[in-house]
Amino acid sequence: MKCVGEDLGVLEGITPLAEGSSPVDVKHNAGEVILLDFWATWCPPCQPPMQHNQDMLAKRKDWEGKVRIIGCSGDQTAAVVRAHVDKKGWTSVEHYWRGSSKCNEEFGVRGIPHVALIDTHGKIVFKGHPNSRPDLEKDIDDLLAGETITGKGTQAPEGKKEETEAEAKELTPEKFATISKHFLDGCEKLEGVKE
């Protein structure tokens, strides 16, 4: 999972919304700031942040060529996202459909909305809920100026990454296999015990 302090790398296999588009890889360009927003059309809490993204881009013409706001939707089809974006007029945001891409897993997205801020050097400097950042516009300006942002979600993990409570409760195929193995091993030992 990509953590704060690591390079963005490449967002592999996400699909632009234009009809008939094939999946593409999206990379950071030196000197630009990226706000990556994981969202969906069916998610009520995702709508105000996406409107805010559109409003920031409409207001801040000086960001052109320096700031990219990328929406990565988890909807079932690109057509659903395209219709929603067109209806809302959110056309200044660079929209993609996740499709079969593994980007949600790579960014540890457990719920949406979930955003990541990437600085001018391509480093992840924040991950979390957009409401955790009271002034994203200022954050972006600070990053463009080469400054560091601080606060919740901006700390790189120390040492071995510890599981969050939500991750610990999630039953992944790997955890299921481990639990099953321990259970079966325990059953084999009990078969040899006589009362």
Fold and architecture overview:
The chain is of the alpha/beta class and 195 residues long. The protein has a domain at 10-144: Glutaredoxin. Helices cover 31% and strands 20% of the residues. It has 6 helices and 7 strands; from the N terminus they run E-E-E-H-E-H-E-H-E-E-H-H-H. A 7-stranded mixed β-sheet has the order 2-1-5-4-3-6-7. A hairpin with a 7-residue loop joins strand 1 and strand 2 (24-27).
Q: Determine and state the CATH class of one domain.
A: Alpha Beta
Beta-strand level of the residues, as a percent range? Answer: 15-25%
**Can you tell me the CATH topology of one domain?**
Glutaredoxin
Largest sheet: 7 strands, mixed
Shape: globular
Distance between the termini: 48 Å
Structural class call reads alpha/beta
The CATH architecture classification of one domain is 3-Layer(aba) Sandwich
H-E order: EEEHEHEHEEHHH
Count of helical regions: 6
Helix content: 25-40%
Fourth-level CATH superfamily of one domain: Glutaredoxin
Alpha-carbon Rg, integer: 20 Å
Strands of the biggest beta sheet: in what spatial order? 2-1-5-4-3-6-7
Write down the overall mean pLDDT. Answer: 86
**How many strand elements?**
7
Low-pLDDT regions: 160-168, 187-195
Write the layout of secondary structure elements.
Layout: E1 10-16, E2 24-27, E3 33-39, H1 47-59, E4 67-73, H2 78-88, E5 94-97, H3 103-106, E6 114-118, E7 124-128, H4 136-144, H5 165-169, H6 173-191
